[in-house]
Design a protein that fits this description.
single chain; alpha/beta; Rossmann fold; 5 helices; 14% strand; globular
Length: 81
């Protein structure tokens, strides 16, 4: 079974800012060796930030398509962990 990561807003911001510490997690996800999940709150926090350019917003949307958006229920949290 591949690894599963429930990604919060901070780790995604670190990734988008080029933080090398979190890069291995995203390499794993992009290679298909792991599955990444995020919740709707993270989507809002990332895409509704007033300081984003249209280019940045589109890059974030494109990247989020390789992840799975899940509702935060007890069941979904257990499935991600």
């Amino acid at each position: 079974m591949s690894r599963r990561y429930l990604l919060d807003t901070n780790i995604l911001i670190y990734y988008f800012n080029g933080n090398s510490v979190v890069q291995p997690i995203f390499d794993e996800i992009q290679a298909g060796d792991a599955v990444g999940y995020y919740c709707p709150i993270t989507w809002v926090e990332l895409l509704c930030y007033a300081g984003l350019t249209d280019v940045q917003r589109n890059e974030i949307r494109t990247f989020l398509r390789i992840l799975t958006c899940v509702s935060l229920t007890n069941f979904s949290i257990r499935q991600c962990c």
